[in-house]
Amino acid sequence: MSTHAEDDVVAPASIQPSSMAAQAAPNADRAVAGKTRELDTPRLRKDFADQGAFLYLEDFLAPEVTAQLAHSARSLLDEVNRNYLPGHKQGGSVSRHTIDTLAPFIAELYRSKELIGWLEQLSGDKLQVSPADDPHAYALYYYTRPGDHIGWHYDTSYYDGRRYTLLLGVIDDSSCRLEYELHTRNPDVPDQPGSVQYPPGSLVFFDGDKLRHRITPAGANEMRVSLTFEYVTDPNMRPWRRFISNMKDAIAYFGFRQVFRQMTSRGKTAGKGRA
């Protein structure tokens, strides 16, 4: 079951949308470069490999970037598509298609050459942005009602190559935690459980097919918003996998209107070009 908008959500006073206009958005490349220069990337790459393609950093985003993301998240509350899958998922989300129109700084950060280059150093893979019709390429996830959560899962790649997930903390006035299990795909290494409550500005980076994880339920009068970026090593997807991926996104996340409107728009554009 899916419903649109957060019309009955009352955010805590500390995170109510500001009535003031947002400051000019920071330069994404410059902000990322300023932070990554401070990091010991060779050590972090080793940590990433030792943990089975997983890394958590509590302090990653520059303060001005975190502030801009939080402003964007608040401004998009009316665009949230809510979903409920019994026994697995309850919450809201905003896809990249809405973000492109209403919060373009997020798209700029997603495409930051500095960010992608640094993630390539960690993963050892050549990373590409997801195709333009993938609503999961970058998306905001909202936990704003008691019980909002997502159950144990992998970020399964339907692409021909690997798909890496980057989670960024945006707003966290909640008791929600990211719980995870490392090495579940490696029979030679014991599973290793872990749990973090990643705050605004923090980062989680992992291979989606390797990390089993969940978000624990939100309590009353709590709010949590996270931002997800997806990068791929091969942007090709077989037609039957594309159908499965689209249906999953429409039912469990963004709604049919968000997922399929890009396909409809492309069809109309192609039709206009025909004699």
From TrEMBL:
Region listing for Disordered, in residue ranges: 1-37
Domain Fe2OG dioxygenase: from-to ranges: 131-233
The name this protein goes by in its record: Fe2OG dioxygenase domain-containing protein
SUPFAM superfamilies for this protein: Clavaminate synthase-like
Domain of life the protein comes from: Bacteria
Organism: Paraburkholderia fungorum
Family: Belongs to the iron/ascorbate-dependent oxidoreductase family.
Pfam families: HalD
Keyword Iron: yes
MF (Gene Ontology): metal ion binding; oxidoreductase activity
Keywords: Iron, Metal-binding, Oxidoreductase
